[in-house]
Amino acid sequence: MHIPDGYLSPSTCAVMYAGAVAGWYSALRRLKRMLLSRVIPLISVFAAFSFVVMMFNLPLPGGTTGHALGVTIAAIVLGPSGAILALSIAIAIQALFFGDGGISTLGANCFNMAIIGALVAYAMYRLIAARAALASRRRVIAAGVAGYVAVNAAALLAAIEFGIQPMLFHDASGTPLYAPYPLSIAIPAMMIGHLTFAGLAEAVISAGIVAYLQVADPGLLRSTSGLPPEPAQARTPADAIALRPAASSARRLWIAVAVLMLLTPLGILAAGTAWGEWSPRQLAHAALTASPASSAAAPAGLRRLSTLWTAPFPAYAPTFVRSRSFGYLLSAMFAVGFLLGVSLVVQRFMDRHRRSGSTA
Amino acid sequence: MSARGFLESTTMGFARALTRAMLSEQTARQRGLLQSLDPRVRVVGLFALVLAVTLSRKITVVAALFAVAIVLALLSRVQLTTLIKRVWLVVLGFTGVIALPAIFVTPGSPVAQLGPAMITEQGLRTATLLILRVETAVTFTTLLILCTPWAHVLKALRALHLPKEAITMLAMTYRYVFLLVETATQMFDSRRSRTVGRLPPAEQRRMAGRTAGVLLSKSMATSEEVYMAMQSRGFRGEVEVLSDFHMTMWDYAGLVLFLLVAAVAVGVGR
Q: Cβ–Cβ contacts within 10 Å for residue A290, how many?
């Protein structure tokens, strides 16, 4: 998944560098609130560890081998900010010293694997592990699933970056200037390999390390476990940069929402209409092609009801928006904004309710 | 899976990485064109050439830059066999496989029929452009690595205004990569000497997890020790990078030449 130089256009590289710099900046700023003198050796040695783990040639079920990324275990032990920096440094050393991955594409590689990889891995791990005990089997499974999902999320991003190249960058004769395959080829081609081997390799190593740490060094799992720190236990180095809960997790949620909104144009790629979301006309057409003998009309009730409510954004795209993907994005932003607004109002209401309940 | 087990193939990978690093240190000490220039000129110049490779849109221009890379390699006493083995064949194997289907699937004017598949002119051009571009860019990067000791690359990056903290972390990471590779190799060697026959894959996977876990515990302990050592020597989070490079006329000439070649390539190739 290390994109070499030459696959992405310079403007794509610039955009990805901008995204990566934003991620690095916020990660470094969050860590700087802790002790910088502690952060530097911790991140450096962890980056070296990630680098070495990437070289493990893992035997996978089915008889093949694969390499892990190591981003999941970094997110579990260091938290997302630490993982972003450690992985970015490991990726930079691979590019600068071993020529693995390009220099112009370093921003894209760090964005896909270190930033999105770490955020997705951390979110999945916290979501699945919840507040399970440190030694519980649930944490091992959570680490495995987080690894699998994180690697595939990173691969999907890389595939999208490849896939938009021929659409945006071609010469007068239509020759693609960079990665030559459109999204319809790039996404399946990338995802087949990652849904099978690479994702599995990351799942195997993440689950394996967590299972080992549960027995040998459970303190390393504590800082991101969501469990209260044990006073009797010595603080681990990772505690030094463990995340602050409330405020920063909300900010991460905002980032995740923003990324998901940017990914919404992917919906256009899915062929056909989602099952059960047919319009009356589509339904009539489907019925006609399925069995010519049956009544060629949509149920009368559906036809009547379908005119009852006209959504402000029919088929997710306002009529004044010509470009389909832009319409999608706009609809997503509107929908997310609306949902966030509603949830904020509900939360405010519940807070007030709780406060008045506690004073009563 | 391959004939060798997890232990053997991973140890071989470690050995390959160490050999590469040693080779770089050797070539960097030789007397050649790139080695004679200030490391900052090398970093800026070669990065500019990589940028020119990605910016130019014509096959001929990228091919000319590839020729520049070969001339630079020869003048810097980098063995072409090293480049062939380390760069050209590897890139051809990887990018070649990726680019090959593009010959058939890229829509455009057909030039030949191969069975049921149609080869298009646009497909041929895009595949050639991709392979040539990647080959040239990776050659420039490899030349930088082969002709510059890592410590100098880092100091030169400071000239590009990278944060000092980032450079310190890159330097420390590189140092501990070797320590951890050595630790891991010793762990694998000792395990191999105690293993008779072949382990079943599931057991190999468990072992990989445990080995990585031990390595992680050791890494965290090491980082704690390093922190203590740094603190006891007065480190308070302020990083100082010594810079003892000075530019001579020769360096300025080299820089101007690099930037000129890159600018001409971008100008002609657009």
A: 9
| Cα distance between residue B140 and residue B148, in whole Å | 12
Distance CA A46, CA A339 (A): 39
Pick from A5, A93, A204: CB nearest B170: A93
A/B interface, count of CB pairs below 8 Å: 266
Sign of CA dihedral A204, A210, A215, A217: positive
- Check if CATH label 1.10.1760.20 holds for domain A10-246: yes
Q: Looking at the complex, report in whole angstroms how far the Cα of residue B62 sits from the nearest Cα belonging to chain A.
A: 11
| Shortest alpha-carbon distance between residue B249 and chain A (Å) | 27
pLDDT at B22: 82
CB within 8 Å: B172 and A61: no
Q: Where is average pLDDT lowest: A6-15, A92-101, B206-215, B233-242?
A: B233-242
The end-to-end CA distance of chain B, in Å, is 46
Q: Output DSSP code: residue B110.
A: E
Domain ranges of chain A: 10-246
Can you point out the beta strands (E) in chain B? 110-114, 117-120
- Chain-chain contact of A237 with B227 (C-beta, under 8 angstroms): yes
Q: Does A220 touch chain B (CB under 8 A)?
A: yes
**CB-CB neighbors (< 8 A) of A63 in chain B:** 1, 201
pLDDT in tens, A164-190: 998 888 888 888 889 888 898 889 988
Please provide residue B194's backbone torsions phi and psi, each rounded to the nearest 5 degrees.
-100, 0
Reported ipTM: the value is: 0.89
Cβ of A173 and B57 within 8 Å? no
Q: Give the residue from A107, A177, A6, A102 showing the smallest Cα distance to B66.
A: A6
Encoding tokens for residue B241?
């990078």
Percentage of the residues of chain A whose pLDDT score is greater than 90: 32
Q: Is A51 on the interface with B (CB under 8 A)?
A: yes
Q: Residue A246's pLDDT is what?
A: 39
Tokens representing A129? 């592990």
Residues of A with Cβ-Cβ distance to B143 under 8 angstroms: none
- pLDDT in the model for residue B191: 86
Q: What are phi and psi of B30, to 5 degrees?
A: -70, 160
Say if CB B32 and CB B75 are below 8 A apart. yes
* Distance separating alpha carbons of residues A180 and A178, to the nearest angstrom: 6
Q: Rounded to whole angstroms, what are the CA distances from B183 to A50, A74, A215, B215, B239?
A: 14, 19, 21, 8, 28
CB proximity A69 to B under 8 Å: no
Q: Which residues of B touch A56 (CB under 8 A)?
A: 6, 10, 208, 211-212
- Residue length, chain B? 270
Contact B173 A205 (CB under 8 A): no
Neighbours of A37 (CB within 10 A): 16
Find, among B110, B70, B87, B112, the residue nearest to B20 by Cα: B87
Show the DSSP H helices in A33-174 as ranges: 36-54, 71-98, 106-109, 117-129, 137-163, 165-168
| b/e per residue A130-148 (b: at least 16 CB within 10 A) | eebebeeeebbbbbbbbbb
